[in-house]
């Protein structure tokens, strides 16, 4: 591998991280009612159904302690509720509330507008290339 090739490979993660950082800054500017991590937690619960803290932590790739902090905030806001698990009275299952479902929908709508403002500048052909390229890279990551 040449130095030029190596430099080009290092450039991709930097570009991607810069883009994601910009999206994070836009998230903060838009005044979303929840953080990105809280949104991911709510989306996961919406997709997967009720979960225990340990399951949600694994799904989000966070520690159970971090997820406990996140769920405590969501509980305070009324977006989730905690119930005793049927099979184990010591375990608590986290479920979405109607308010949680509503905040997901509102956030998705606003986030869709933000994402559209960025990606709409790309021709459809470039969008297809991005989907294809990220699909290939993700498959390769999953192999390793």
Automatic annotation (TrEMBL):
<keyword id="KW-0238">DNA-binding</keyword>
<dbReference type="InterPro" id="IPR023187">
    <property type="entry name" value="Tscrpt_reg_MarR-type_CS"/>
</dbReference>
<dbReference type="GO" id="GO:0003677">
    <property type="term" value="F:DNA binding"/>
</dbReference>
<dbReference type="InterPro" id="IPR036390">
    <property type="entry name" value="WH_DNA-bd_sf"/>
</dbReference>
<feature type="domain" description="HTH marR-type">
    <location>
        <begin position="1"/>
        <end position="139"/>
    </location>
</feature>
<protein>
    <submittedName>
        <fullName>DNA-binding transcriptional regulator, MarR family</fullName>
    </submittedName>
</protein>
<dbReference type="GO" id="GO:0003700">
    <property type="term" value="F:DNA-binding transcription factor activity"/>
</dbReference>
<dbReference type="Pfam" id="PF01047">
    <property type="entry name" value="MarR"/>
</dbReference>
<dbReference type="InterPro" id="IPR000835">
    <property type="entry name" value="HTH_MarR-typ"/>
</dbReference>
<keyword id="KW-0804">Transcription</keyword>
<keyword id="KW-0805">Transcription regulation</keyword>
<dbReference type="InterPro" id="IPR036388">
    <property type="entry name" value="WH-like_DNA-bd_sf"/>
</dbReference>
């Amino acid at each position: 591998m040449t130095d030029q090739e190596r430099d080009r490979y290092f450039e991709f993660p930097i570009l991607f991280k810069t883009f994601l950082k910009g999206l994070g800054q836009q998230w903060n500017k838009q005044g979303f009612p929840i953080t990105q991590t809280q949104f991911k937690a709510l989306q996961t619960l919406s997709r997967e159904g009720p979960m225990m803290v340990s399951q949600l932590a694994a799904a989000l790739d966070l520690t159970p302690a971090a997820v406990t902090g996140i769920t405590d905030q969501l509980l305070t806001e009324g977006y989730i509720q905690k119930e005793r698990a049927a099979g184990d009275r010591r375990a608590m299952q986290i479920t979405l509330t109607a308010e949680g479902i509503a905040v997901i929908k509102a956030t998705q709508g606003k986030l869709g507008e933000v994402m559209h403002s960025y990606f709409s500048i790309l021709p459809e052909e470039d969008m297809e290339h991005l989907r294809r390229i990220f699909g290939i890279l993700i498959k390769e990551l999953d192999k390793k």
